[in-house]
């Protein structure tokens, strides 16, 4: 269609309006709408659906009472953990109690969404309003309970420990203790969730805007009693995920397919923006009580962190987030004695599951604020204190002695933190900043500089797989089970296969997240796609190459060692013979019936067969399946720095400069890595200065719209300077580490550091608005 | 009621209730799902289409209001077989990731560059500051607008 160089294989359809997102499918399907709780905590006395029955086009109304076994049971607890002693999950439709505003109470199915919403509005639910638990401290005080059978609102108490932190702190020459807070925010993809299901009496096909089709498939098989081979789940184009779509199965993800089966009709539900705010997951809210002991040089001797984690009304995703916070808090530093406890608490608010960064922004906020406070206490340069605490480049693999979120030891694979520090200092102008500050001050301007470092466990297991197939025209089809939400996997995975097979990426088509094409997968989260599926594609493509060379050797009568895969063919290195991959694909599949000239070459009477060997040796087809399963995670790292200006009058905070040094191992596609960093930083700036979930004391979310939840526009995101470092991971053949979440992780720490530097008083809670900064100025006076 | 629009240069007609939004009419009745709905309250800009060559939020407008008008959606931006300069620039500069907000940016920027063929950086920032993108951090979107302006000049 065009010869311009687009960056990605995905782009042409997305630029021409030919992408297909969930709500673009199922034109003419019945539509679902949900009656949701307007109360944060209530008992349902009665549901009167009579009013809805008059709506023309109404097909069905369902409440919990109507649901069959399986569908009426509580939704799964996806990641059980020994510390999660009081895990609770919701029902797909509320049974007697609602525990957050937005919890689904009834499902309406009608001819279209307008009519479904008309009917939903006429359903009358009688609630006995109960006292809500709003905010972490209220939850910890436990005057009221979210679940009557969970004392203290305590879902889990988790402990992580290395050495004797209490003793090390007590014996340290210097000690500091302080509290740090981070508020709720959310992934907030531009496309909400959605489900569309078709049932033909035996087979169920479900399209979902999910980050894991294979796991949704297994959950639906268990819930709906449909055998796995009779369910297919497909993620179409997905309009951003950032974590919220890894949570599954959502109530709607079970209910919509069930309704399609029950009614024998296609049924669709596409979440609207208000629904997304009040029923899709949030993240981030934690309170941290930090105690640190350190020596005269600023070296940390002991660190103790007590974390209060708000997990919302239910715990379907377990306690992955505080596990990540309590391990990744250590960052690039050697902390000889460390102790962390987490109290994971119920509140009457939307559930909390991973949002890009997933517990790391909070952990990094703790570690980096700690470094800044040590520097301030000893009157040392903040970069110097960090440098003195770094793990040195020759100390890898570095074992922290803790257990990571994948249940495996927290051992860093590789990195070069001192070099990253030098790069970030150069990029932001760290050493010359004093003069710049003075010059600004002379003009009556107040500016400050901040720094933040992080290490991110990426590419967690257990595994991913891929299937690579060459068809008879030489085109290569790659399929992997994990899903895409805009990262450019179709491009990156094509690059991996292309490098292995010696062909151009234009000869390769990649499918992700379609269980019809690949049924075994974990999903897209934890910056794992390039590491896991990237290496799986390399394994599968490598097998195809081997197969092609073996077959070519047989056909050409050549020594396999003299052949190579290049230019879309297998050829002798000396140029004496060659055979195309497409031809090899034909010959790999001995045929009785031919249907064109190409396939006739594989017919029974083509050529002179060896009468003593069977026509097929091994498996037919120039195709292979490969899996990659690492012993443990890779650890990407990076450092950010920023210069901010705080208006002396209005307290408006402007980010003047933002710099990123990023190390995700070998980069398969630097342009796409950079894009990931940009997007992450923008979400980080959002979480530092603009976005929060404003719950009132009744548990009402006051800013559940894009009018009131201040998602940054282009005018709020500063220009981002980036530099890269590539320390390859020794754990996988491609040497890659993940890049998806990196950009967001240290931003709140960096901005707080810079504002603190500009203002001269502590910034211990994020996000921070101009009015909050104004109040802090008042308090500091 | 019967509503007739000139969509991407073609007269299109369909029945719809008076309350149906232009976005839903384009997507559902006319089968043009390239226009995306991100917030349903006019803030995100994903649903932006050109009404008589001017950008409007199709989620804030009733289809009936657009009766008789010319509408350009993302499906109508490519000229014959070739991508428009704006589409080409977004592709070259990696100005999109998930692609959900992209149709709104493309229509907005197309109208902007018609009116401001040689924009300053400040004008560019201003022009795209009514559209939300959650993926790109806007860095490459701003670059793409600059690049589109170059492509249109050459």
How does this model look, in words?
The complex is a heterodimer of chains A (781) and B (154). Chain A has 781 residues and is of the alpha+beta class. In chain A, 27% of the residues lie in helices and 24% in strands. Chain A has three domains: 11-130 and 193-270, Alpha-Beta Complex (Aldehyde Oxidoreductase, domain 3); 358-458 and 632-780, 2-Layer Sandwich (Aldehyde Oxidoreductase, domain 4); 464-628, 2-Layer Sandwich (Aldehyde Oxidoreductase, domain 4). Chain B has two domains: 2-76, Beta-grasp domain (Ubiquitin-like (UB roll)); 85-153, DNA polymerase, domain 1, CATH 1.10.150. Chain B is 34% helix and 15% strand. Chain B has helices spanning 22-29, 85-92, 102-115, 121-128, 139-153, and strands at residues 2-7, 10-15, 48-51, 54-57, 70-72. In chain B, strands 2-1-5-3-4 form a five-stranded mixed β-sheet, covered by helices on one side. The chains are: A alpha+beta (781), B alpha+beta (154). Chains A and B meet through helix 1 and helix 17 of A and helix 2, helix 3, helix 4 and helix 5 of B.
Considering the chains and any ligands shown, give keywords for the structure.
heterodimer; A: 781 residues; alpha+beta; Aldehyde Oxidoreductase, domain 3; Aldehyde Oxidoreductase, domain 4; 3 domains; seven-stranded mixed beta sheet; six-stranded mixed beta sheet; 29 strands; B: 154 residues; Ubiquitin-like (UB roll); DNA polymerase, domain 1; 2 domains; five-stranded mixed beta sheet; 34% helix
Determine the N-to-C terminus distance of chain A. Answer: 66 Å
Task: List the uncertain runs of chain A.
Answer: none
Number of helices of chain B: 5
What is the H level of CATH, i.e. the homologous superfamily of the largest domain in chain A? Aldehyde oxidase/xanthine dehydrogenase, molybdopterin binding domain
Q: In one word, what is the shape of chain A?
A: globular
Strand content of chain A: 15-25%
**Biggest β-sheet description of chain B:** 5 strands, mixed
């Amino acid at each position: 269609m065009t010869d311009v160089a687009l960056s990605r294989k995905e782009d042409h359809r997305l630029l021409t309006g030919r992408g297909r997102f969930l709500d673009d499918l199922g034109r003419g399907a019945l539509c679902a709408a949900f009656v949701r709780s307007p109360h944060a905590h209530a008992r349902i006395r009665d549901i009167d659906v009579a009013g809805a029955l008059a709506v023309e086009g109404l097909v069905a109304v369902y409440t919990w009472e109507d649901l069959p076994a399986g569908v009426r049971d509580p939704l799964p607890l996806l990641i059980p953990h020994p510390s999660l002693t009081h895990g609770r999950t919701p029902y797909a439709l509320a049974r007697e109690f609602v525990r957050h505003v937005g919890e689904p109470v009834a499902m309406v199915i009608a001819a279209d969404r307008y009519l479904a919403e008309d009917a939903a509005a006429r359903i009358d639910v009688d609630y006995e309003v109960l006292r809500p638990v709003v905010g972490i401290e209220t939850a910890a005080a436990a005057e009221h309970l979210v679940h009557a059978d969970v004392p203290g609102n305590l879902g889990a108490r988790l402990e992580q420990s290395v050495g004797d932190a209490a003793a090390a702190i007590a014996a340290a020459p210097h000690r500091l203790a302080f509290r740090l807070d981070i508020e709720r925010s959310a992934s907030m993809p531009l496309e909400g969730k959605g489900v569309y299901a078709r049932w033909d009496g035996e087979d169920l096909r479900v399209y979902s805007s999910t980050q894991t089709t294979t796991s949704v498939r297994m959950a639906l098989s268990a819930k709906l009693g449909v055998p796995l081979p009779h369910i297919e789940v497909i993620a179409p184009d997905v309009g951003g995920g950032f974590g919220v779509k890894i949570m599954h199965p959502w109530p709607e993800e079970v209910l919509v397919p069930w309704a399609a089966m029950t009614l024998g009709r296609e049924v669709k539900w596409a979440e609207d923006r208000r629904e997304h705010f009040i029923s899709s997951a949030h993240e981030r809210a934690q309170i941290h009580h930090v105690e640190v002991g350190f020596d005269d040089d600023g070296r940390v001797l002991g660190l103790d962190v007590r974390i209060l984690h708000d997990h919302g009304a239910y715990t379907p995703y377990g306690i992955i987030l505080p596990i990540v916070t309590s391990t990744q808090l250590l960052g690039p530093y050697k902390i000889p004695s460390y102790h962390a406890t987490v109290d994971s608490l119920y509140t009457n608010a939307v559930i909390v599951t991973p949002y890009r960064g997933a517990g790391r922004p909070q952990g990094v906020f703790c570690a980096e604020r700690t470094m800044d406070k040590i520097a301030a206490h000893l009157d040392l340069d903040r970069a110097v204190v960090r440098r003195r605490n770094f793990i040195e480049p020759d100390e890898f693999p570095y074992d922290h002695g803790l257990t990571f979120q994948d249940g495996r030891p927290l051992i860093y694979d590789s990195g070069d933190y001192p070099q990253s520090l030098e790069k970030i200092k150069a990029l932001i102008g760290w050493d010359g900043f004093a003069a710049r500050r003075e010059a600004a001050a002379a003009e009556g301007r107040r500016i400050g500089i901040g720094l933040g470092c992080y290490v991110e466990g990426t590419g967690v297991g257990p595994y991913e797989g891929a299937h690579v197939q060459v068809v008879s025209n030489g085109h290569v089809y790659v399929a992997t089970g994990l899903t895409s939400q805009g990262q450019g996997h179709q491009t990156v995975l094509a690059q991996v296969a292309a490098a292995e097979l010696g062909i151009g990426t234009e000869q390769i088509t990649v499918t992700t997240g379609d269980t019809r094409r690949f049924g075994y997968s974990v999903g897209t989260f934890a910056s794992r796609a390039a590491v896991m599926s990237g290496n799986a594609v390399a394994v599968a493509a490598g097998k195809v190459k081997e197969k092609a060379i073996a077959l070519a050797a047989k056909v050409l009568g050549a020594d396999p060692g003299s052949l190579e895969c290049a230019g879309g063919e297998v050829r002798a290195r000396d140029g004496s013979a060659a055979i195309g991959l497409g031809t090899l694909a034909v010959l790999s599949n001995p045929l009785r019936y031919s249907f064109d000239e190409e396939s006739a070459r594989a017919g029974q009477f083509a050529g002179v067969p060896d009468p003593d060997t069977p026509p097929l040796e091994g498996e037919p087809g120039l195709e292979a399946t490969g899996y990659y399963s690492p012993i443990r995670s890779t650890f990407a790292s990076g450092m950010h720095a920023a210069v901010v200006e705080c208006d002396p009058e209005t307290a408006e905070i402007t980010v003047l400069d933002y710099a990123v040094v990023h190390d995700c191992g070998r980069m398969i596609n630097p342009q796409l890595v950079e894009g990931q960093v940009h997007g992450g930083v923008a979400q980080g700036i959002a979480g530092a200065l603009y976005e929060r979930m404003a719950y009132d004391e009744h548990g009402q979310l006051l800013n559940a719209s894009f009018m009131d939840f201040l998602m940054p526009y282009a005018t709020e995101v500063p220009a981002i300077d980036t530099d890269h470092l590539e320390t390859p991971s020794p754990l996988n053949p491609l040497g890659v580490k993940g890049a998806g979440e990196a950009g967001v992780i240290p931003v709140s720490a960096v901005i707080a550091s810079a504002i603190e530097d500009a203002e001269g008083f502590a910034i211990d809670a994020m996000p921070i608005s101009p009015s909050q900064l104004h109040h802090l100025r008042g308090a500091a006076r | 009621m019967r509503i007739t629009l000139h969509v991407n240069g073609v007269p299109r007609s369909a029945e719809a209730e008076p309350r149906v939004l232009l976005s839903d009419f384009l997507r559902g009745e006319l089968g043009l799902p390239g226009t995306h709905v991100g917030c349903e309250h006019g803030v995100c800009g994903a649903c932006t289409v050109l009404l008589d060559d001017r950008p409007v939020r199709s989620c804030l407008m009733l289809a009936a209001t657009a009766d008789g008008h010319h509408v350009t959606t993302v499906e109508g931006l490519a000229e014959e077989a070739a991508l428009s300069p704006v589409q080409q620039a977004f592709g070259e500069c990696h100005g999109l990731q998930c692609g959900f907000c992209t149709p709104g940016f493309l229509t907005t920027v197309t109208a902007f560059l018609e009116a401001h063929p040689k924009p300053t950086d400040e004008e560019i920032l201003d022009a795209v500051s009514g559209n939300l993108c959650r993926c790109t951090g806007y860095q490459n979107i701003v670059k793409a607008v600059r690049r589109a302006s170059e492509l249109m000049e050459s």
